[in-house]
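Quick one, tokens below. Sequence please?
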């Protein structure tokens, strides 16, 4: 059996999405910016896809949704545009973000620091989230932008985006959220949550790779990231990826049309997997209380088992997962989230992320439970450090730092 539990990295494309895309590769293939009928033939499908995205996130007619190649592009666009608009051409010089953002945010912020921008990187608390009052305390009259992810890609922890948005509005500061791990997994309503910009990507909710989006509240101006044409109203040049856009529209509709029911089903499987692993494997921990996490995600740490070694063994059993931090060298950094919640450095190098989807089956959960246990037993049997010392977790990390006997 092959089991794919790396859905926070990417998802399989829903067969219904593939079916919707197919005509736009070889039948309706004209450039949509061309005036002839070969080009205009794709316009109804593009409008439908746009309507599907607007509906899925409850955007208003005053808002813009721009199709991009991925969320990395969308994240870069927002940060660099704010830099140009508010810092280079304005009187601001400060951005607030977090230590646990996606690399497309963190790397861009480091680039902006090289250009003279001041960036504050907020840590997560002992529960694995960035608190709204912490964000508020670092906003100054020089702050141009706050960028905080909606849900963390490693832990699934959902951040208090609604509260942060209200604070930013009160302070008159632009607010961007990387919504990649939220859209299609939990309800996302941009009328309820006051965000100025939100990035998302189709391949995270069973759409195709190579297409994403940027939500822009009230169509406010952004300096174009690409120049060279009048595509997307002149805001994002480049010939539209018609099959990809059609696929994203279909995928987001399928992912959100009955999202509450889907969440229940996925959460039940995730919780059953989590309960079983915590029960049968001692000295095992899961980051984050369940009610504060996306329903498909768990970051589990197994004392005495290095993350990279665990991935190798799981791969031998045809189980796809990922590790929260690269652990091939003692010099590599430990998982920031785990250190923040009170884990020691050894444990912070053992995180394995298991992320489910609506296509994950009960049989796959059963298979994973059995072979996960076998992999841990083998790796611990050859671990001299675990054989010598098997510490009992203690004290101060609270609900996000759960030994197996505290998990229920």
């Amino acid at each position: 059996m092959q089991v794919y539990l790396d859905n926070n990295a990417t998802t399989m494309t829903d067969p219904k999405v593939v079916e919707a895309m197919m005509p736009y590769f070889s039948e309706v293939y004209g450039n949509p910016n061309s005036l002839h009928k070969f080009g205009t033939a794709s316009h109804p499908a593009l409008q439908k896809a746009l309507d599907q995205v607007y509906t899925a996130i409850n955007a208003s007619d005053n808002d813009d949704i721009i199709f991009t190649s991925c969320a990395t592009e969308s994240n870069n666009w927002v940060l660099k545009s704010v830099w140009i608009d508010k810092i280079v051409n304005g009187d601001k010089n400060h951005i607030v973000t977090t230590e646990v953002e996606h690399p497309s945010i963190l790397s861009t912020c480091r680039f902006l620091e090289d250009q003279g921008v001041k960036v504050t990187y907020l840590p997560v608390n002992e529960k694995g989230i960035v608190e709204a009052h912490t964000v508020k305390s670092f906003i100054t009259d020089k702050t141009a932008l706050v960028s905080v992810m909606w849900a963390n890609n490693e832990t699934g922890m959902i951040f208090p985006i609604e509260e942060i948005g209200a604070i930013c509005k009160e302070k008159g500061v632009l607010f961007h959220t990387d919504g990649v791990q939220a859209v299609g997994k939990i309800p996302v309503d941009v009328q309820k949550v006051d965000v100025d910009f939100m990035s998302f990507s189709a391949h995270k909710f069973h759409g195709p790779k190579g297409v994403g989006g940027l939500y822009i509240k009230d169509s406010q101006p952004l300096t174009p990231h690409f120049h060279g044409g009048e595509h997307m109203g002149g805001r994002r040049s480049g010939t539209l990826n018609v099959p990809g856009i059609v696929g994203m529209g279909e995928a987001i509709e399928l992912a959100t049309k009955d999202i509450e029911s889907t969440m229940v089903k996925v959460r039940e499987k995730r919780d059953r997997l989590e309960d079983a692993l915590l029960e049968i494997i001692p000295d095992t921990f899961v980051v984050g209380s369940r009610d504060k996490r996306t329903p498909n995600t768990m970051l589990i740490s197994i004392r005495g088992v290095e993350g990279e070694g665990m991935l190798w063994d799981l791969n031998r059993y045809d189980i796809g997962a990922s590790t929260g931090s690269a652990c091939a060298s003692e010099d590599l950094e430990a998982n920031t989230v785990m250190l923040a919640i009170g884990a020691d450095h050894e444990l912070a190098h053992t995180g394995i992320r298991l992320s489910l989807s609506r296509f994950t089956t009960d049989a796959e959960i059963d298979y994973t439970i059995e072979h996960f246990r076998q992999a841990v037993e083998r790796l611990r049997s050859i671990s001299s450090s675990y054989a010598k010392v098997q510490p009992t977790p203690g004290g101060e990390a609270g609900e996000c730092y759960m030994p197996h006997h505290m998990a229920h």
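The CA atoms of residues 44 and 280 lie 54 Å apart. Residues 15-256 form a domain with the Aspartate Aminotransferase; domain 2 fold (CATH 3.40.640.10).
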